[in-house]
Write a structure and sequence with these properties.
Chain A has about 400 residues and is α/β, with parallel strands linked by helices. Chain A has helices at about 5-20, 45-65, 90-100, 115-125, 155-170, 190-205, 225-230, 245-255, 275-280, 280-285, 300-310, 315-335, 340-350, 355-360; strands at about 35-40, 80-85, 105-110, 130-135, 150, 180-185, 210-215, 235-240, 265, 290, 380-385, 390-395. With about 300 residues, chain B is mostly helical. Chain B has helices spanning about 1-35, 40-60, 65-70, 70-85, 100-120, 145-170, 170-180, 180-185, 190-215, 230-240, 245-265, 270-285; strands at about 135-140, 140-145. In chain B, strands 1-2 form a two-stranded antiparallel ribbon. The chains are: A alpha/beta (about 400), B mainly alpha (about 300).
Chain lengths: ~400, ~300
């Protein structure tokens, strides 16, 4: 043992040296740089979404800095401080705590999963740092927080509007919806989407709820769920499986059992490139989902820039929203003329943008928050898989493809 | 009749899911049985097995064959990990010695593997697309998913092979001797350290093969271990700590209970059924289904 110790020590040291060479620490910012935090899952089962968010943030920061930084602060550069929200609320909260207390952070973004955002925004509120989120859950902006700003339409609004849109589409295609299924996991955004459907919206439209199954991820096997869908033959399946393996298992079973009911997803997790690799584009065709934002008509050049820079086959909500968030923080700092979080919060509360990279990242192209911190007029988009790529199909004014209703 | 068919479908689904749990668990049971090491990194080796099968599949090897082909490299990897790391902290099989160190070591190993995989292989989930993942064998009204059926049969074959190895070969007997009484075994000329290497290598190879089979229908990502590791431990304890047939039955029982729970409880409580059965077994038969009383102190 004693003989081998120096060798072990040497090996450890060598590893440390290698690690510092391979993964150098971020360069120290100059004194007047503006630091913004991104708390997103970078490890664990939602790490892919964190990675996508970071791509959007990096792109925006590079654009801002190369265009001369923040003009009101004499060309100050924006620096990103990312923290790993991991795979649990506890980890997300401690990541936010760490990143926000270690140094002065002017504003923050995160944390994708609504359950995480609920925890992270509590930390931001306590430390008085303005926080932008794309998370959907209604409760995020129902707590009277002053520092939380939600750019997405909340889940209940999404449920209402999505139902309106799909019943309309179905009627136009002579397949009116009479029976619906609700299938998904019990993460916060999904829960808040399903709740109004179950409690009032479906009944108000005279739609019968024939399957209502909610699970705790991970799902061991999808047979029983899909069997129930097959037996009930609903005219639409409202579908919320945020955990990728769960979703793949369900969709594989849908094909195996020959289920023909149209699938209406709840969130952008259903339109990531890895679905094409795991299931093939034919299987995905005409599956649609409601999202907070997605590349719209007129953004083709911008999307091309994104795909070239990242190697991703297309752009989705997560990078687009985070891109918009960074630009929005930039605009707020320009107006606040300060890096002070409180001043930036006040600027965000007053901001009213309808042009520029921040505004065009969201639909409709206007950013103004109400007193709760919700973006006024925020409307969801419907995105549909067509030929292995997800396109915005509703509303038609910003659609990049016409909608194709299920055959 | 329809209800009988439904019940049979639930039983069949449960057994198919349980088959792969069973194969995952026997590797863990072997390692614990022989070395008294609680390997928290077992799920991570499974994840690496899934990735290797994925890379085999990219080069045109069918994943079912790929799963078997993970066995030799992972045996070597397990042996190397044992020689390089575990052998320093396991204290020759004595359960009273250095228990903390081996727990910390395997837990640390798990963190390092998961995060290294996230860094090197990226968190993007991958999947092997096989025709059989979305097709079923129809046995009357009962549908058996083809990928899961193949995985189940392969799991049975591999488990049987392990059983034959342990009971019919000299190396297997030596392994069991080293497990039963390391001191007496070493007096008989059995190299206990080598036996530990053999057990760890085999245990890792088995879980990697289980990962390969799983990959035929389950997406692969660096964090996939978290979805299975608790169930593996439950299977091993349920079957009787260290008992190979016990772990196999434990795995099948978990699959069955998960599936049958749905007849009475909602989906959200699917694993509650597993843990209720687990508690009942521990209460009524603390040594586990196949455990020996002698070990209880």
């Amino acid at each position: 043992m004693t003989r081998t110790m120096p060798r072990t020590l040497a090996l450890t040291l060598a590893l440390f040296v290698a690690a510092t060479v391979l993964f150098p620490p971020p360069p120290a910012p100059a004194a007047d740089d503006v630091k913004i935090a991104l708390v997103a899952p970078l490890s664990g089962r939602w790490a892919r979404q964190g990675q996508l968010k970071k791509m959007g943030a990096d792109m925006a920061i590079e654009e801002i800095n190369s265009q001369g930084g923040i003009k009101a602060l004499g060309g100050a550069k924006i620096v990103l401080r990312e923290a790993d929200a991991g795979d649990s609320v506890e980890k997300a909260v401690s990541a936010a705590q760490r990143v926000l207390t270690r140094e002065k952070i002017s504003a923050g973004i995160g944390s994708w999963l609504s359950s995480f955002t609920l925890g992270v925004t509590e930390v931001a509120e306590r430390l008085q740092v303005p926080w932008l989120t794309l998370s959907y859950a209604d409760s995020i902006t129902e707590r009277g927080f002053k520092y939380t700003f939600q750019t997405s339409p909340v889940s209940s609004v999404q449920a209402e509007q999505a139902l309106e849109l799909v019943t309309d589409l179905a009627k136009k295609n002579n397949r009116p919806i009479k029976k619906a299924a609700i299938v998904g996991d019990n993460t916060a955004a999904t829960v808040f989407f399903f709740k109004p459907l179950r409690e009032k919206l479906l009944a108000a439209k005279g739609i019968e709820l024939v399957v209502d199954e909610v699970w705790t991820p991970p799902l061991p096997d999808a047979t029983a769920i899909v069997q129930r869908i097959r037996a009930a033959q609903p005219d639409i399946v409202f579908y919320g499986a945020t955990n990728f393996p769960d979703s793949i298992q369900v969709l594989q079973k849908v094909k195996e059992f020959g289920v023909k009911s149209p699938i209406q997803g709840v969130g952008a997790w259903l339109v990531t490139p890895e679905y094409v690799k795991a299931l093939g584009k034919e299987m995905l065709d005409s599956i649609q989902t409601v999202v907070a934002t997605h590349p719209m008509k007129g953004q083709e050049e911008f999307v091309k820039k994104f795909t070239q820079r990242t190697g991703e086959p297309f752009m989705t909500q997560d990078p687009l929203c985070t891109y918009g968030h960074v630009w929005l923080i930039k605009e707020a700092i320009e107006q606040a003329k300060s890096t002070d979080p409180k001043a930036i919060r006040d600027a965000l509360a007053k901001i009213d943008l309808s042009s520029g990279p921040a505004a065009t990242s969201f639909y409709p192209n206007r950013i103004k928050f109400d007193e709760r911190g919700r973006r006024i007029g925020a409307t969801p988009l419907i995105v549909q898989w067509q030929g292995g790529e997800p396109f915005t199909v509703v509303p038609t004014a910003v659609a990049t493809r016409p909608v194709a209703w299920h055959k | 009749m329809a209800q009988v068919a439904e019940l049979l479908q639930y039983v069949a689904t449960g057994l198919l899911v349980g088959g792969v749990y069973a194969l995952m668990s026997i590797g863990l049971a072997l390692i614990f049985g022989v070395m008294r090491v609680v390997n928290f990194a077992q799920g991570d080796f499974m994840m690496l097995g899934m990735y290797l099968t994925y890379f085999y599949a990219l080069s045109g090897i069918d994943p079912l064959l790929g799963a078997v082909l993970t066995i030799p490299p992972f045996f070597v990897l397990g042996w190397v990990v044992h020689r390089g790391l575990l052998a320093r902290v396991t204290g020759g099989g004595d359960p009273q010695r250095q228990m903390d160190a081996q727990l910390i070591l395997t837990l640390g190993l798990s963190l390092v593997i998961t995060n290294a995989a996230t860094m090197i292989l990226t968190p993007t989930p991958r999947g092997i697309r096989t025709a059989y993942a979305t097709q079923a064998f129809a046995a009357g009204p009962i549908l058996l998913n083809q990928a899961r059926s193949y995985a189940f049969v392969m799991a049975l074959i591999l488990a049987a092979a392990v059983y034959v190895f342990l009971t019919r070969t000299d190396a297997g007997r030596a392994l069991r001797a080293a497990a039963d009484d390391p001191e007496a075994a070493s007096y008989q000329g059995i190299d206990v350290r080598a036996m530990h290497g053999l057990a760890f290598g085999t245990g890792i190879a088995l879980v990697a093969a289980a990962g390969g089979l799983l990959a035929t229908y389950y997406p692969i990502e660096p964090s996939v271990a978290g979805n299975f590791i608790v169930l593996m431990f439950v299977a091993v304890v349920l079957g009787g700590l260290g008992s190979i047939p016990g772990a196999f039955v434990g795995g099948l029982v978990i699959g069955l209970v998960q599936s049958l729970t749905l007849l009475v409880l909602p989906f959200q409580l699917q694993n509650t059924g597993v843990f209720i059965v687990f508690l009942l077994v521990l209460y009524l038969r603390p040594q586990g289904l196949f455990g020996r009383r002698a070990r209880a102190v």
